[in-house]
Amino acid sequence: MSGTAAPGPGIVLVDDQAAGTLPPPPGGAPDRPLPVVLDCDPGHDDAVAILLALSRPELRVLGISTVGGNAVLERTTETALRVLALAGRPDVEVAAGAAHPLEGPLRTAPHVHGESGIEGPELPPPESAAIAEFAPAAMARWIEAAGEPVVLVPTGPLTNIALLLEEHPSVRERIAHICLMGGSITEGNITPAAEFNIWVDPEAAEIVFDSGIPLTMIGLDVTHRSIVWEPEREVMARAGDRVGPVVGGLLAFFQSFHERTYGWAGTPIHDAVTVAHLVAPELVRTAALDVRIETQGRFTRGRTVVDLRRVTGRPPNAHVGLDIDRAGFVALLTEAIRSYG
Ligand code: RIB
Ligand code: CA
How far, in Å, CA of 202 to CA of 195, rounded? Predict the structure, then answer.
C-alpha cells in the first residue's frame, strides 16, 4: 500500500511564543557565510544534508565529524568521504569520532539504511582520507580557528557533541547555536517513544540539551512533513547528470523503508531540514519550549519530553520545530542538487 496523504496539520500552540527568550540561529549570507560543523552518521539523509550545505553560499563548512549511528563508524566515515568526492569537495576535512554511545553498545539501523548505512546507488570512491585527529578535538580546533561564533549541525547521535562540550569546555562560548535533527514532540520511530538519534545516546543528548547553548531541535514532527514525493524525487534525479542521479537513487532506497512503515510513496529527508533551516529560516516554524531527555524509562528511554503546553513552568531550552513549508523545502533541495551540474 502506498499513499501520498501528507500528515495532518502541523502542531498548533495556544500561545505561540515562537521567539521566547532563546536567541534564534544566527543567519548566514553569501557575503558573510555562517561557519558550520556538520556532525553526522551518513546515512541517506545525512548525505543529502552534506550536499545541501556544500552547495549554499550562506554556509561555510569548517569540517565534517562522523559518529556511529545509522551504521558503524568506519562505514559512516567512509560514506562522508565518498559524498565529498561526489560533491567535488575532497578538500573538506573529515574527522572520525565516537564509535559507540557514552553508555552501552552501539545499535545501528540496517533495517532503514542497509548494512552499509547507504544502500542503493554506487557512490564514487573516496578522493581523500579522514584526518587522524579524534573528532571532538578536531571540532574544537575548527571552532577556535573560525574567528567567529560557529553553528554545530548534528544529524546523528549526539555523542561527539557531548564529548566536545565535556572535553573542550573552552569552546562553549564560541558555539553560537546547535541546530540538530533529533527527537519528537509526538511519536518516536525506532521505538514508539523515541527518535533514533536521541535513542542511540540519551546521556549525550541530556548533556547537549542541558548545556545552556542555544539550540534548535528539528524533530520528527517537522521531518515527517518534509516528504519528497515520488514525482519530486524523479525531478531531483534528472537535476543535472552528476549528483542528481545519485540523490534520486538514495531517496528511492530510503523510500522503501517509509513505504513499508508509513505507507508513503515518498521519503522524508530528516537531516537536510536542519541545513535548510539555517539557509532559509522561514521554512520551519518553531516555538521556544522546554525539552527534557528521558534516560531511565523502561519503555521511554531516549524520548524527548517536550513541554508543549508549558505546564512545568521550566524556561525554554530549545527552539522546537512544529511545521515546515514542504514545497519550499523541496524547491530549495532541488535547486541545490541542480547547482552541482
Ligand atoms: O530518526 C532519523 C534520524 O536517524 C536521521 O538523522 C537518520 O539519518 C538517522 O540518523
Ligand atoms: Ca543521521
Answer: 10
